[in-house]
Amino acid sequence: MGCDTPGPDYITIQEMEGKRHRPTWDAATEVEYIERCRDKAQDMARTIITQALEKASREAEAIREEGRKEVEAAVASARQQAQEEAQARLDAEFQAQAEAMRSLLEAISGLGLEVWQSRRHDFVVLAKTFTEKALRVEMDTRRAEILSSLMDEALSRLDAHREFTLKVAPQDYELAKALMEEIQAKRPDYGQWRLATDNALTEGGVVLETSDMLADNAIASRLALLAPYLDQLDLPEDLDQAREPGQNGA
């Protein structure tokens, strides 16, 4: 459609002026014609741009939504795979330690009380080692859950609007960052915070520092709390009692 093509509401210059004859084409008529073409072109351009922006916005939102779904699916798949792998390691470790214990017990099953008493301490050490390894594998299996719990526990000791630094193991940095952003969204009253890595920490450990407080939730510290219980592990002097199901010493 040309600039001078009549439309449904089109009124000629002559009709607007109350004229019924075509005037001579002069400079003024040319200026008016050019202005009308320019206005019509601007209207069309605005309409085209608006429609293009709306379409682009819809397409961008669709792409973002698809991207969110893909990321969520990938995270869920990776988490499931990590849990399955960790569980497999835990099962393998348990089976290996159980087999080692069974072999040792079978090897001395025919020996007398004197030999049993001389080896009893070795079995206690083996039982403690097995328990510690099982605890570490379990902590690794539930690393994300434990890290989230320890972060919540550490942050619960803070007053609102305080500056603090949260230290984690280098392997936990990305996970801790995501967890901290979730916590910050739920508790916007928390003050300025900084996330840092500490090579001295093992996976799953958390240390919170402020200007006047240190909250040590490192895995090593947690395991140290279990040491008194592990120290209580013992085996009876009587070999027959040691063979009874459920016998775990003191």
Overall radius of gyration:
38 Å
Broad structural category: alpha+beta
Name the average pLDDT.
70
Unreliable segments of 5+ consecutive residues: none
Strand content: 5-15%
For the termini, the CA-CA separation is 98 Å
Count of β-strands? 4
Number of helices: 7
Task: Give your account of this protein's structure.
- The chain is an alpha+beta fold and 250 residues long.
- Among the domains are: 1-18 and 26-107; 144-217, hypothetical protein PF0899 fold, CATH 3.30.2320.
- It is built from 7 helices and 4 strands.
- It has a 4-stranded mixed beta sheet.
- Helix 5 (173-186) links the parallel strand 1 (164-168) and strand 2 (193-197).
- The chain is elongated and about 130 Å long.
- The relative contact order is 0.07.
- The model has no long low-confidence stretch (mean pLDDT 70).
Describe this protein with a few key phrases.
250 residues, alpha+beta, hypothetical protein PF0899 fold, 4-stranded mixed sheet, 7 helices
Short summary:
With 250 residues, the protein is of the alpha+beta class. The chain has helices spanning 13-16, 27-107, 113-141, 143-155, 173-186, 219-231, 239-243; strands at residues 164-168, 193-197, 206-209, 214-217.
Please give the structural blueprint:
Blueprint: H1 13-16, H2 27-107, H3 113-141, H4 143-155, E1 164-168, H5 173-186, E2 193-197, E3 206-209, E4 214-217, H6 219-231, H7 239-243
Parallel strand pairs: 1-2
Antiparallel strand pairs: 1-3, 3-4
Helix pairs in contact: 2-3, 4-5
